[in-house]
RNA sequence: GGCCCGUUCGUCUAUCGGCUAGGACAUCUCCCUUUCACGGAGGAAAGACGGGUUCGAUUCCCGUACGGGCUACCA
């Protein structure tokens, strides 16, 4: 029988939401929606020393922006509350005790200093990082070596202790990953991971298994970096709830840095000049700022589309997908095994495609906000829309519109007269003065404007080609932008006259 | 070091034994455009290496190399 599909994304609220995290959310979301299942957001805040103010709210903001709303969460409620692990603290100890009682785990009294000492002592060239494993545990202070009375004494004396899993000495642990197929590990080579910390909080290892069980998770997706600890989780499932109950695992490929190799990090973004987080994030402790895709000018549709394609495709040559299409077509079987280097140029291409695809109304407000932020307040939405329509082909990011369209709203501050000065003469000055003063006689639109411009040029015996660039520079300030007569039409008669006159005085 | 995972154009990828190895981004050339783009046409560009299996391997298997991940009382 098949369980009802319930998936979860379980971030630790310690900082900005990385695109790898958003992609994990996406795949969770797509899988849940496709199967009529439930998407849960669980906050894994078991490390109190890493608590970061605002990080949790930030995660919800990011998911909101992306349109990947959880069905159950701290914010949205649900039958399996609480969804914050710090609020579930009491439930974990019980399972840890059960494991100890059944001989699958043990108390360890070693202090951090003693652990350090152990690592120093056993560190060799061949073994740079000794593990707390089946060999080492015999030489440490734990309930396996201390004897029952001593353990009792320590516990009742309030000595701090952790609970560690007792990895079997020689067992093959295997499972079938939905993406990688069968994966196997030798238990002897996995260390005795801490399950319950001295402060009574579980580590990820215990918490993920207990909560996935309690929340009836059917499929567990996470990044590939978790693969090495999978055997611990498999064993815990076996000891606690039975392997038949275990969700199906899918370890997602990593998103790699564009140059060189390795996981993409915030530092790579800073170094190479592109966002790595979904939205702007400022670390409240360090004041460290990181820019987000949203603020850089990405559309959520494009962002999600691009992320979906990093590690998956539908087997056809289609690259642009709406979220609904993704929900329909997504399949784990087509998720790749290997990591993908992040390509910012391609990311911008996706955004440009979405700018062209979506109706201007869908993103007009974001551009308006960006303009306002940079000191241009736009009153008329109709004009804005017309302008956006005119320049959208040359903007990959929403923030590109500022440079591409600000001259529609205010006269250019610098005029590139140098480009036309060389071939300038009195006849041209006269031409522009006369043309500008004839505006009252023409209907104000691009077509008639262009006609009158060309007519006058030929009657004056000046090549139109000699006048087009000058006109553009007068109105725009430089060699760019859409058709000049469209620009003139939009900025209006008197503004056009003023800009021509202003430029003429500079020549 | 150990363990685990991976390996097709510069990058993202298609191919589930028949390939003249396809597409997209980037790049180059040309066309369109009296600006810059968009757009259109075309070019260059890949199967890490060595063994098998097979009539036939990019595709399956095994090694090697390379890359990555993990190796905390962090997730």
**Rg for CA atoms:** 32 Å
- What is the structural class? mainly alpha
Tell me the CATH architecture of the largest domain: 3-Layer(aba) Sandwich
Total domains: 3
Give a brief rundown of this model.
43% of the residues lie in helices and 10% in strands. With 507 residues, it is mainly α.
Q: How does this structure look, described?
A:
The protein has 507 residues and is mainly α. It is built from 21 helices and 13 strands. 37% of the residues are buried. It has helices spanning 19-34, 55-66, 89-101, 112-122, 148-156, 204-214, 230-240, 266-272, 293-296, 300-309, 323-329, 344-357, 364-373, 381-391, 400-405, 418-421, 426-437, 446-459, 464-476, 484-491, 493-506; strands spanning 6-9, 38-41, 105-108, 162-165, 172-177, 181-186, 194-196, 219-223, 248-252, 255-256, 281-282, 289-290, 340-341. Helix 1 (19-34) packs across helix 11 (323-329), helix 10 crosses helix 12 and helix 17 (426-437) runs antiparallel to helix 21. The chain folds into 3 domains: 1-72 and 253-358, Rossmann fold, CATH 3.40.50; 88-207, Glutamyl-tRNA Synthetase, domain 3 (Alpha-Beta Complex), CATH 3.90.800.10; 411-506, Arc Repressor Mutant, subunit A (Orthogonal Bundle). The strands form 6 sheets. A 3-stranded antiparallel sheet has the order 3-4-7. A hairpin with a 3-residue loop joins strand 5 and strand 6.
């Amino acid at each position: 029988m098949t369980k009802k599909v319930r998936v979860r994304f379980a971030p630790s609220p310690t900082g900005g939401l990385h695109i790898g995290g958003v992609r994990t959310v996406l795949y969770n979301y797509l899988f849940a929606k496709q199967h009529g299942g439930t998407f849960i957001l669980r906050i894994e805040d078991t490390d109190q020393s890493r608590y970061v103010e605002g990080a949790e709210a930030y995660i919800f903001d990011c998911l909101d922006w992306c349109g990947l709303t959880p069905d159950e969460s701290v914010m949205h409620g649900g039958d399996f509350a609480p969804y914050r692990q710090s609020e579930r603290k009491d439930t974990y100890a019980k399972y840890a005790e059960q494991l100890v009682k059944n001989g699958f785990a043990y108390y360890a009294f070693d202090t951090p200093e003693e652990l350090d000492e152990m690592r120093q002592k056993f560190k060799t060239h061949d073994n740079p990082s000794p593990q707390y494993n089946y060999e080492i545990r015999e030489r440490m202070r734990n309930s396996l070596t201390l004897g029952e009375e001593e353990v009792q004494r320590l516990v009742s004396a309030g000595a701090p202790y952790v609970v560690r899993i007792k990895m079997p000495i020689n067992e093959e642990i295997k499972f079938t990953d939905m993406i990688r197929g069968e994966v196997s590990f030798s238990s002897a080579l996995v260390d005795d991971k801490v399950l319950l910390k001295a402060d009574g909080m579980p580590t990820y290892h215990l918490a993920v298994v207990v909560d996935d069980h309690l929340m009836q998770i059917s499929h567990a997706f996470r990044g590939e970096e978790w693969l090495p600890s999978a055997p611990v989780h498999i064993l815990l499932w076996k000891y606690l709830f039975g392997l038949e109950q275990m969700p199906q695992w899918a370890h997602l490929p990593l998103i790699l840095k564009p140059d060189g190799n390795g996981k993409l990090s915030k530092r790579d973004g800073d170094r190479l000049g592109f966002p790595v987080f979904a939205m702007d994030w400022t670390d409240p402790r360090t004041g460290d700022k990181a820019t987000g895709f949203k603020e850089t000018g990405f559309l959520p549709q494009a962002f999600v589309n691009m992320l979906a394609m990093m590690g998956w495709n539908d087997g056809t040559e289609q690259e642009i997908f709406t979220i609904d299409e993704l929900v329909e077509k997504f399949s784990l079987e087509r998720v790749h095994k290997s990591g993908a280097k992040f390509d910012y140029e391609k990311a911008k291409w996706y955004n440009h495609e979405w700018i062209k695809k979506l109706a201007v109304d869908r993103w007009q407000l974001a551009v308006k906000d960006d303009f306002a932020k940079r000191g241009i307040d736009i009153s008329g939405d109709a004009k804005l829309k017309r302008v956006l329509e005119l320049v959208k082909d040359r903007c990959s990011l929403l923030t590109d519109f500022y440079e591409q369209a600000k001259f529609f709203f205010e006269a250019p501050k610098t005029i590139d007269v140098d480009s036309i000065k060389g071939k300038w003469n009195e006849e041209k000055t006269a031409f522009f003065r006369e043309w500008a003063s004839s505006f009252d006689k023409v209907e104000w639109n691009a077509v008639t404007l262009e006609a009158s411009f060309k007519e006058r040029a030929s009657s004056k015996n000046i090549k139109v080609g000699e006048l087009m660039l000058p006109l553009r520079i007068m109105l725009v300030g430089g060699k760019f932008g859409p058709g000049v007569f469209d620009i003139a039409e939009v900025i209006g008669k008197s503004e056009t006259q003023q800009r021509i006159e202003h430029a003429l005085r500079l020549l």
